[in-house]
Amino acid sequence: MIEFVAALFMLGGAIMAVISAIGIIRFPDVYTRSHAGTKSSTLAVLMTLLGAFIYFASEQGFYSVRLLLGIAFVFLTAPVAGHLITRAAYRASVKMADTTIEDELRDVIKEVQEETKEEKENLQESREKTEEDVEQTDNKESDQERERE
Amino acid sequence: MIQGMLIAALTLYGVGIAISAFRIIIGPSLPDRVVALDMIGVMLVSSIAIISVLQGTKAYLEVILILAILAFISTIAFSKYIERGVIIDRKRND
C-alpha cells in the first residue's frame, strides 16, 4: 500500500515535469519560460524524490539522508538559478514578448545609471585635479635638477 | 502495477527531456538554452531516482546530489558569462 503511494508520488512528479516541459516550449519569451522551467520542475523533482524516499523507507527500512539532502538542495537552488539567469538575460537586453505591456525595472535602472554617471564625473574631475598637482610638483623637481646641473 | 507506474513515470520524464532538448535546439537566445539545460538537469535527477527505485538499489543516490550541484553551478557560470562576458573575475591593479 505504501509502495503504491510512493509510486503515485513519482508518477505525479513525472506528469508535473511534462507539464512544465510543455510550458517551456509554449511560452513566448525567456522570462516566462524560466517561470515554467524553475517552479513546476522544482515541484516535479520534489515529488519524485519524496516518492523515492518513501519507497526506500517502507521497502528496505532505509531512511536515505542523501535523498532528503537532494530535496533540500534542489528546493534552495532552483529559484536562485532561475533568478540569476533571468537577471542575466535582462542585463543582456534579451527582447521581451510582444504582448508585454509594462517594464518597471527599466526606469529604475535608468535612474541608477544617471546617478552613477554623475558620481563618475565628479570622480574624474577630482582625479584630473590631483594629476595637475602631480605635474606641477614634477616640473618643480625637474627645475631643481636643472639648477643643480 | 507499481513497476508499470514507475516505467510510465520514466517515459514521461523522457518525453519532458526530449521537449527541453528541442527548446535547446531552437532557442532563439542563449538564456533560453540555459533555462532548458537547467531543466534537463533537474529532470535527470528525478529520473535517476526512479531508476534506482526500479532496480531496488541505493547505489545511485550519490549521483542525485552530484548532478544537482553540477546543474546549479553550471547555470550560475552561464549566467555570469552572459552578464559580463567573463566567468572568473580578477582584481586588477590600475
SSE layout and pairing:
The complex is a heterodimer of chains A (149) and B (94).
Chain A: H1 2-26, H2 30-59, H3 65-91, H4 104-148
Helix pairs in contact in A: 1-2, 2-3
Chain B: H1 2-26, H2 30-55, H3 61-84
Helix pairs in contact in B: 1-2, 2-3
Describe the structure.
- The complex is a heterodimer of chains A (149) and B (94).
- With 149 residues, chain A is mainly alpha-helical.
- In chain A, 85% of the residues lie in helices and 0% in strands.
- In chain A, helix 1 (2-26) packs antiparallel against helix 2 and helix 2 (30-59) packs antiparallel against helix 3.
- The radius of gyration of chain A is 30 Å and the shape is elongated.
- The model of chain A has no long low-confidence stretch (mean pLDDT 85).
- Chain B has one domain (1-82).
- In chain B, helix 1 packs antiparallel against helix 2 and helix 2 (30-55) runs antiparallel to helix 3.
- The longest helix of chain B has 26 residues, at 30-55.
- Chain B is elongated, with a radius of gyration of 17 Å.
- Chain B starts with a helix and ends in a 10-residue tail after the last helix.
- The model of chain B has no long low-confidence stretch (mean pLDDT 86).
- At the A-B interface, helix 1, helix 2 and helix 3 of A face helix 1, helix 2 and helix 3 of B.
